[in-house]
Amino acid sequence: MTFIVTVRKLFVLLFIFTSFVSNAQECNITLSGIVLDGYNQSPLEYSAIKEEKNLFGTITDKKGLFSITGLCKGTYQIHVKHLICEHLDLQISITRDTFITIRLPHTNHDLSTAFVVGNKDKLLKQNNKLKPAELLTLKGNTIGEIMQNLQGVTILSTGGTIAKPIINGMYGYRTLIINNGIRQEGQNWGQEHAPEIDPFTAKEIELLRGPIGLKYGPDAIGGIIMVNPASIFNYRQNLITGSLNSGFESNSRMGFLSAYAGGRFFDKVPLYWRLQGTIRNQGNLKTPDYYIDNTGYKEQNFSATIGTHSGRITSDIYFSHFDNTFGIYSGAEVEDSTDFMNVIHGLVKPVDNGFTYKIDLPKQQSIHDLLKARVFYKLKEHEYLKVVLASQYNQRREYDEHSIDINLPETEYKIRTHSVDLLWEKEGTKQFKHQLGTNLSYQQNHYNGEYFIPEYLNQGAGVFYILEKEWRTFVINGSARIDYRDLRADYWIQNNDFKKYHRNFYNTAFALGGSYQPKENLSVTFNILRNWRPPAPNELYSKGMHHGQASYEEGSPALKEEISHKAELEIFWIAKKKFQFNAVFFVQDINRYITLVPDSLPKITPHGALLSFHYGQTHAFFRGIDFQLLWKPTKQFKIEQQSSMLWANDIGNKTFLPLIPPFRFSIEPGYEYKNLEFKIKGDFVARQNRTNTTTDFMPAPQSYFLLGAEIKGKSKIGKQELNYFVRGTNLTNQSYRDYLDRFRYFIDKPGYNISVGLGFSF
User: Fold this and answer.
1) Range list of β-strands (E), 287-340
2) Which of 288, 463, 530, 692 is deepest in the core (most CB within 10 A)?
3) Number of folded domains in the chain?
4) In terms of Cα–Cα distance, which of 405, 388, 389, 385 is closest to 397?
5) What angle (nearest 5°) sits at the alpha carbon of residue 234, between those of residues 231 and 238?
6) 253, pLDDT greater than 90
7) pLDDT-based confidence at 725, cuts 50/70/90?
8) What is the pLDDT of residue 24?
9) Quick check: is 9 in a domain?
10) Is 211 among the domain residues?
11) Together in a domain, 604 and 694
12) Rounded Cα gap, residues 626 and 638, in angstroms
């Protein structure tokens, strides 16, 4: 009996040993390769190769080579990135030792302090960006709603359909949006004038900080948001690839459909192309208690790109068309001041005509066209010249319910912007990098109908220089810029009398930044910036009803340019690959800060009693903190937390500035199982107690907490990939109002909403 037991033990031990040897044999595969610049085929040192689930990661050597050992048979999702190239996502299946060649598209030449390079391994820090996997479940939203998922970004909304980003308390002209490398220009002076950008054109959306921002203008006092499309130069010959995405939302019964396809025409002639289009239709939104009348939304967009890459020259042409129509809540216009006060104090019920897709008056229609031509020329090794020509056309029609002819807009604006960007870039010796460039712009605005903002001609020219120097564990960069603006406008005084104004603005901007990496898991980044911004035409010369917000606004022709001084400190730390901490601290002083000040009483107009505002200037002081924590105790489970605190004082009037985001806190536990990911999200928004109660029409709304959840996954159908998600927001169906919503005086925010989406790649 003892002999039998001993034999059994020997067999068990032999089985375990055999299994171990078998597994060891299966997990001794080596994946090696080389990373090349797709433009000039030169090896890329310090390229980061990282597996999607953090199973492994490495850095290329001076010859662009890398090697990863101890891998098992299987399929791996790999992310490859480099400072001067576009990032690339690859799927690699290995069964034995494998050598691969990776060519990164050399189409993005922005300098950045996001990474520190040296002989030590770089800290693989995540930029503050939304990547394709994150955008997948968000693209049913507007571009403004998507941007609020960036750390430190909130939104200023108008009703439930229009949103524009706020960065560190700054919005509108102080926040630049770069769409496909071009400054987004349009009638963006209104809070309801959301960015006219189709989210489905974006591969990633990024918040940009530091001296590199002066490349795009001196007026990014708040910050810059980059909307970056995917490169077209990754397609292979005779292979058309693309995707089809669709989705539905329960609250507004919104549906969307978007698709793109691209490829390469010929083998010997490297000609690349991509086509894309989106349609979206939304009905009235619903709060927990009522439908919000006339909040429908319709959108039809398309874009096309064609380009070639041969020898020293890379060039492309891009065109996009954006067309949306949206309703404006009808209850925001009342007859007189008594009715107005009754509405904002809740004595009159909100207008509720049930659900419909129909868009009645008042409404707006916005059309935006962008045409861009780019030529990228390699002068010699590590020296490049880029020329970008762009033309934008923005048309906005505003229809009022008091219009005599409902088919004609009360006011129509047409703005055309032409720009030329020239850039010379050189990666010099001793780790120096240089950028020298100029921006020229010509902008003309016309209007028809009722006066609100004038016809004007706005011309500008700017020159900038950016220098970066790298050491072993330290990177420092600086930039300088000088700009000149010439503004000519026809200002309405009274009785159809116009006065011509001519203003010139010129000033300088400077920035200094650096990043220090004392350890492989720690980096510290600092930025010091001096920016300036000339007053916008609407801040100077607006006078009348602002239809989109049912308000009366009046500018001040004597306004002067704003001068901003800002300091930022960012700390990024990783502890044993399980804990990640990121914090950004900033202080900002703005002299002659231009603000829209509420008047104490509504304005009585032929359109009824309206919220009344006027533009003024003061001395403003901002300071704030943005935190982001990530704890990953296991490979499957993680908890993300973000919080944002901002204080803003009107020093000139010894009070608080209006429309400043209150304290926000979010927590998001998540679990991954195979190709599925589950998330629960809680968002807490505090009451904004730092307000000037003597000039606001009503106290700030109470704090609120919203509960959400999300499930997303992917699977294979043959060689094609299927992505899907189900997302719920405000699952407790809470009634609330947001301080940053200009319609908070009249209506609640939407109630619970279930979104489903399906994406198919081919």
Assistant:
1) 297-310, 313-327
2) 530
3) 2
4) 405
5) 130
6) yes
7) very high
8) 42
9) no
10) yes
11) yes
12) 20
Q: CA–CA separation, 38 vs 104, rounded Å? A: 5
| Per-residue pLDDT, 551 | 75
Reference 647, options 666, 620, 628; nearest CA is 620
Q: Among the listed ranges 216-225, 250-259, 428-437, which one has the minimum average pLDDT value?
A: 428-437
Strands (E), 149-251: 153-158, 162-167, 175-179, 182-183, 204-208, 223-228, 241-249
For 137-156, the pLDDT digits (tens) are 887 888 888 998 888 898 88
Do both 359 and 455 map to the same domain? yes
What pLDDT is attached to residue 503? Answer: 95
The residue written with tokens 């010796």 in the block is 429
CA end-to-end distance (rounded Å), the chain: 63
| Continuous segment of H or E residues that includes residue 133 | helix 132-135
Considering the domain architecture, whether residues 148 and 91 belong to the same structural domain is answered as no
Task: Locate 95 and state its tokens.
Answer: 């069964």
The residue among 88, 104, 120 that closes a domain is: 104
d(CA 745, CA 350): 11
Considering only CA atoms, which of 729, 661, 726, 756 is closest in space to residue 285? Answer: 729
Collect all residues with Cβ–Cβ distance below 8 Å to 367 and sequence separation of at least 6.
Answer: 196, 321, 322, 323, 393, 394, 395, 396
Instruction: Provide the domain limits for residue 347.
Output: 131-728+745-757
Query: 113 lies in a domain?
Result: no
Task: Place 336 in a pLDDT band, splitting at 50, 70 and 90.
Answer: low
Q: What is the CATH number of the domain that holds 76?
A: 2.60.40.1120
Residue 403, pLDDT score: 66
One domain, residues 99 and 151? no
Q: What is the pLDDT of residues 518-546, one digit of tens each?
A: 887 889 999 999 999 999 998 999 888 77
Residues 190 and 89 both lie in one domain: no
Looking at the fold, whether 390 and 507 belong to one and the same domain comes out as: yes
Torsion of CA 651, 655, 659, 664, to 10 degrees: 90
State the pLDDT at residue 664.
95
